């Protein structure tokens, strides 16, 4: 009987404040969708880092004849065979080095022609202008500075470059987008909480006579407050469900179909469905608890029982 009464009161409250309930659902859905999107963006950045950092190398570019006349670092001339072999030997002795690959100027020219053969500048580039290099695969890409410190400035070396720096611009941009999504999510969350509190206030005020009677007949505070809390929880649950639909639809239409980014951007390792689905329970739980807690706090202030 009590459960039936609580459910009937929930239905009455939702009907009386239908427009505000709808506003709460939309606000909760948008704020939680942004929250889920921020979580997925963070996972995407982490996935891309793991994927690309595992593939990037430290490149040690050796001096050639052209560098000897143009670069102060190669003032002593082009790299000699002895210098090259000593550099390779020293690299292989380092514990942080996983693999060392030597690329000759001819191989570098061949790769350049494969990638940029259709451009105008490719027609005037000659093999002797290309730099031979040593590609160093590190066990931990974060320890690039160890290699840079050990080999920068040595005879025969023109420069030491960490390919991670090429990716940092992309990762920084993705972090900025993530921060913007978090800021917008917080704004929407505040709006949703304000709407929930106002909805509870209006609902409590419209039913002040009923709650007064319930108080007179000995109903407990929790029993009186329960319908209001359940109304907010129900709205939040519906909003959380819509947020999950938005997240799934976003992954489906942006990556797999619609824009089909997975096919158009094959070099990007997008997060899988398992990552997306793993975030949905958290979104649902927050959607259920956030309005309930907000309603409970609002009732302590506005519902005098």
UniProtKB/TrEMBL annotation:
Gene3D superfamilies noted in UniProt: 3.30.70.3040
Pfam families: FtsX (PF02687), FtsX_ECD (PF18075)
Position of the signal peptide: none
Subcellular location: Cell membrane
UniProt keyword terms in alphabetical order: Cell cycle, Cell division, Cell membrane, Membrane, Transmembrane, Transmembrane helix
Membrane topology: Multi-pass membrane protein
Entries under InterPro entries matching the protein: ABC3_permease_C, FtsX, FtsX_actino, FtsX_ECD
Occurrences of domain FtsX extracellular (ranges): 56-160
The keyword tRNA-binding is annotated on this UniProt entry: no
Listed transmembrane segments: 20-41, 179-200, 237-255, 275-299
Lineage: superkingdom: Bacteria
Function noted in UniProt: Part of the ABC transporter FtsEX involved in cellular division.
NCBIfam families associated with the record: FtsX_actino
Family to which the UniProt record says this protein belongs: Belongs to the ABC-4 integral membrane protein family. FtsX subfamily.
Self-association and partners: Forms a membrane-associated complex with FtsE.
Name under which the protein is recorded: Cell division protein FtsX
Biological source species: Streptomyces omiyaensis
Encoding gene, per UniProt annotation: ftsX
């Amino acid at each position: 009987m009590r459960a039936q009464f609580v459910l009937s009161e929930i239905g009455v409250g939702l009907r009386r404040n239908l427009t505000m309930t709808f506003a709460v659902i939309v606000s909760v859905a948008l704020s939680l969708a942004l929250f889920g999107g921020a979580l997925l963006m963070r996972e995407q950045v982490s996935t891309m880092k793991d994927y690309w950092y595992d593939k990037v190398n430290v490149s040690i570019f050796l001096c050639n004849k052209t560098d000897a006349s143009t670069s102060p670092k190669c003032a002593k001339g082009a790299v000699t065979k002895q210098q090259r072999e000593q550099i390779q030997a020293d690299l292989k002795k380092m514990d942080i080095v996983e693999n060392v690959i030597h690329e000759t100027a001819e191989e570098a020219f061949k790769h350049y022609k494969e990638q940029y053969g259709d451009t105008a500048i490719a027609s005037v580039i000659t093999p002797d202008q290309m730099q031979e290099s040593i590609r160093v695969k590190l066990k931990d890409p974060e320890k690039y500075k160890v290699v840079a410190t050990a080999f920068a400035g040595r005879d025969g070396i023109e420069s030491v470059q960490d390919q991670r720096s090429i990716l940092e611009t992309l990762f920084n941009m993705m972090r900025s987008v993530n921060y913007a999504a978090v800021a917008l999510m917080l704004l929407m969350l505040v709006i949703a909480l304000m709407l929930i509190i106002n909805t509870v206030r209006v609902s409590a005020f419209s039913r002040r006579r009923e709650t007064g009677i319930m108080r007179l007949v000995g109903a407990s505070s929790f029993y009186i407050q329960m319908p209001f809390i359940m109304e907010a929880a129900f709205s939040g649950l519906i909003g959380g469900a819509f947020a999950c639909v938005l997240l799934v639809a976003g992954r489906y239409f942006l990556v797999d179909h619609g824009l089909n980014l997975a096919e158009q951007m094959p070099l990007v390792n997008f997060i899988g469905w398992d990552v997306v689905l793993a975030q949905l329970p958290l979104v649902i739980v927050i959607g259920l608890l956030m309005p309930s807690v907000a309603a409970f706090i609002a009732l302590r202030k506005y519902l005098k029982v």
